[in-house]
Structures are given as C-alpha cells and as structure tokens.
C-alpha cells in the first residue's frame, strides 16, 4: 500500500502543481476564457490513462507460463525506465513555474487554446502512464491494497496542491520531491532486480550453479510479513542470485553517473546564460 500511495501522491502532486501554476497565471492575467482548455486537458489525459490501464489489464490476462514471465519482466524494465526518466526530469526542473507561464503566455497571446490543451493533456498523460505502469508492475511483484493506497495518495496530493495555491502555503517542494525521489529510486532498483528474476525463470537469463549467492531466510524470510513488504517496496530478497544483486547495485551507480552529467550540463547552461 505504501508504494502505491507514494507513487500516486508524487505523480498527482506534479499534475496539481502544473495545473495550479497555469490556472493561477490565467487568473492573474484575466484570461479566464482559456481555463476551460485546462480542464479539457485534465479530463482527456485522465481518460487516456484509464484506457491504458484497461488495455494493459486485458492484454496481460492473455499470457501464461513462460510468456507471462517474459511480459512481467519487460513491464518491470519499462517501468524502471519511466521512473528513472521522471526522477531525472524533475531534477532538471529548477524553473518550471517560469517556463510554464512563458509557454501559456505565448499560447494565450496568440489565442491558441489548443496549445494550452495539449500542454495539460501531455502532462496528465505522462504522469498517468507512469502511475499505471508502476502500479501494474508493483502488483505483479506481489503488492496488495494497491487501490486503497492509490486513492489515499491521489486525495492527499489534490488536497496539498489545492492548499498550496488556495492559501499560498510556503512548502519546500524541492525537499518533498527529493525525499520521494529517494524512495522511488529504491522502488525502481527493486523492480529491476525483480525483472531480472522473471527473465531468469523464463530462461532468458542464466541461473548460475552457485545461485543463490547467500540465504538469510533465517534472519528475515522474504515470504514473511515484513519480508513481503520489503520485497514489494524495495525489492528485498533473502535468496538473491548473482544477476539480481548486480542489477540492483549497478542501477544506483548508473543513476549517480547520469545525475552528475546532468548537473554538469545545468552548470554549463547557467554559466552560458
């Protein structure tokens, strides 16, 4: 439940912030005529995400045996990619409010309500896709109470976003996103390792004679209540294979390197500007 709560809170909060910034700008500039395009964009983006969730559920239901393992592994790898991209994208958005208002101002000035509609639709759809993929991959990993956690996360984010723009709460959003990014990186690493496990079971990746590398089930079994929670949330396993352990640890090295390169580019852009 915690994983679904966190992912839906994070994704919904991002949408709420974008929509809030756009609506605030339109209100302050007395361009209320364009607000309907914002809500049209939200509605269409949510609808497409729901359709994707339905298609994914129907599509997944047609697999069994080896093909099911392969599909689960592929879905987890794709979800890891989306989560990583999302975290890196947010890391680069130091002036998101300024750039958003510039885009909206341009569309409003030219009378392009369609441009505002596309901006909001693409934002909602992007976050919706990430949410759908993660929740599906998390459920395949054994998570329970997904719906309950997701609802709490969505409601909490909407309430926080509304309060943020209604009463101008001075919240440190960078801190919020940094904390959630840490958890999401742990989730992504766990999904990557779980995807490797599915590919090993499907015979696409080797299982070495010395696997598992070690067995700490006597300390914390992955099938126990706590072990199951840690497995779903952070990818914990009491009997890891060599490839699972390598993929889990290598992921953090990869993200660290990407973040360093991104930071260097941001510094160079700042100097040039």
Quick structural summary:
This protein is an all-alpha fold. The chain is 78% helix and 0% strand.
Task: Characterise the protein shown here.
The chain contains 9 helices and no strands. It has helices at 2-28, 35-60, 66-92, 96-110, 113-140, 146-166, 173-201, 225-234, 242-272. With 273 residues, the chain is mainly alpha-helical. Helix content is 78%, strand content 0%. It has one domain. The mean pLDDT is 77. The chain is elongated, with a radius of gyration of 21 Å.
Question: What secondary-structure arrangement, pairings included, does this model have?
Answer:
Elements: H1 2-28, H2 35-60, H3 66-92, H4 96-110, H5 113-140, H6 146-166, H7 173-201, H8 225-234, H9 242-272
Helix pairs in contact: 1-4, 1-5, 1-6, 1-7, 2-5, 3-5, 3-7, 3-9, 4-5, 7-8, 7-9
Shape: elongated
- Helix/strand order: HHHHHHHHH
Number of separate structural domains: 1
Number of strands: 0
Mean pLDDT: 77
Distance separating the two termini: 44 Å
Low-confidence stretches: none
Please give the largest β-sheet.
none
What is the tally of helical segments? 9
User: Any idea what the radius of gyration is?
Assistant: 21 Å
Helices and strands: which structural class?
mainly alpha
Q: Work out the strand percent.
A: under 5%
What share of residues is helical?
over 70%
Organism: Candidatus Roizmanbacteria bacterium CG_4_9_14_0_2_um_filter_39_13
Pfam families: FTR1
Protein name: High-affinity iron transporter
Family: Belongs to the oxidase-dependent Fe transporter (OFeT) (TC 9.A.10.1) family.
């Amino acid at each position: 439940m915690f994983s679904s709560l966190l992912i839906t809170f994070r994704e919904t909060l991002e949408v709420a912030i974008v929509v809030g910034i756009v609506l605030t700008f339109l209100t302050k500039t007395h361009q209320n005529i364009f607000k309907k395009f914002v809500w049209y964009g939200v509605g269409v983006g949510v609808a497409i995400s729901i359709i994707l969730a339905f298609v994914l559920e129907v599509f997944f239901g047609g697999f069994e045996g080896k093909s099911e393992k392969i599909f689960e592994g592929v879905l987890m790898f794709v979800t890891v990619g989306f989560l990583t991209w999302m975290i890196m994208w947010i890391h680069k958005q130091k002036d998101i409010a300024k750039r958003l208002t510039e885009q909206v101002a341009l569309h409003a000035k030219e009378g392009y309500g369609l441009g505002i509609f596309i901006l909001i639709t693409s934002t909602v759809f992007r976050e919706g896709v990430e949410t759908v993929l993660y929740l599906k991959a998390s459920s395949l990993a054994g998570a329970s109470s997904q719906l309950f956690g997701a609802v709490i996360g969505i409601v909490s984010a909407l309430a926080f976003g509304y309060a943020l723009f209604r009463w101008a709460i001075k919240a440190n959003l960078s801190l919020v996103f940094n904390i959630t990014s840490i958890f999401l990186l742990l989730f992504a690493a766990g999904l990557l390792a779980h995807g490797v496990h599915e590919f090993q079971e499907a015979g696409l990746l080797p299982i070495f004679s010395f696997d598992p590398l070690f067995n700490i089930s006597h300390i914390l079994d992955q099938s126990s209540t706590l072990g199951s929670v840690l497995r779903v949330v952070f990818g914990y396993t009491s009997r890891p294979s060599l490839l699972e352990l390598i993929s889990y640890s290598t992921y953090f090295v990869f993200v660290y390197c990407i973040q360093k390169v991104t930071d260097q580019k941001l510094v160079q852009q700042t100097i040039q500007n």
